[in-house]
Design brief:
The chain is an alpha+beta fold and 240 residues long. Helices cover 35% and strands 22% of the residues. The protein is built from six helices and ten strands. Strands 1-3-2-7-8-6-5-4 form an eight-stranded antiparallel beta sheet, sandwiched between helices. The protein has a two-stranded antiparallel sheet with strand order 9-10. α1 packs across α4. The longest helix is centred in the C-terminal third of the chain and has 22 residues.
């Protein structure tokens, strides 16, 4: 049996995650870490997923700033596919980790990096599916939020808030988005995993959304409206 929990980010009904202070974000990180550890210890829980849905375009009906935490009694299909790819990459490159190498390549290239600090880098992936999609990685490979150090937890807030505010500054109205933490399964393949946050929006331009039409829905082949390099440049150029 799984579990579902709700995390309220603030008592201010009219606020948003982007308007939180770094200190408040640190409190939220502590909540994510605590609940991940507690839920992972429950019998039958195989994966813990912390996430936020924001905006009516995403389907949100409760507008108070909040996120959710699901404890699944199975490893999700998305995570299984990611770990299959990581395992295959490790077999071809003994001793290497797929996610660590992707992060290193993005940091070295630089053109898709949106912002970074000593402990975190936020970048638009080279194969982004969504018009505006950013991945946030800690520089140290860890399996889940509870294993982040105090310094890494402190450093997350400034980078994430920077990205969220750039999202909101792109087109004027607040950006609808999904923020999804990718954590390692509780019991299997933890050395293959690499904690990271995926942030993406279905808004592709002012007043326009990205719909999953024929190619995406029927064939699973995403056709992006914005090149990753262009998306990163647009985000970097937002005046904060």
């Amino acid at each position: 049996m799984g579990r579902c929990e709700v995390v309220c980010f603030t008592s201010d009904h009219n606020a948003s995650f982007a308007r939180l202070t770094p200190a408040r974000v640190r409190t939220v990180v502590e909540a994510w870490a605590d609940r991940t550890a507690e839920l992972s210890a429950l019998p039958g829980v195989e994966q813990v997923f912390c996430f936020e849905n924001r905006g009516e375009e995403i389907g949100v009906t409760l507008h108070h700033p909040h996120g959710q935490i699901y404890a699944y009694p199975f490893v999700t299909p998305k995570t299984e596919r990611m770990l299959v790819g990581a395992r295959a990459y490790g077999n071809r490159h003994p001793g290497a980790n797929l996610f660590a190498d992707v992060l290193a390549a993005e940091r070295a290239a630089g053109e898709r990096v949106v912002t970074s600090n000593e402990h975190w880098t936020a970048f638009v992936p080279a194969v982004a599916r969504w018009p505006f999609e950013v991945h946030l990685y800690p520089h140290r490979q860890v399996p889940d939020i509870p294993t982040l150090t105090n310094e890494e937890r402190d450093a997350f807030g400034p980078v994430y808030l920077d990205v969220l505010r750039r999202f909101d500054g792109l087109f004027g109205p607040p950006m609808p988005y999904i923020a999804a933490w990718h954590q390692a399964p509780v019991r299997v393949d933890r050395p293959l995993a690499y904690l990271h946050l995926q942030l993406f929006s279905i808004r592709r331009a002012p007043g326009k959304l990205k719909y999953l039409a024929g190619s995406e829905s029927a064939m699973g082949v995403f056709i992006n409206d914005v090149r990753p390099e262009q998306a990163a440049r647009m985000l970097r150029e937002v005046a904060l």
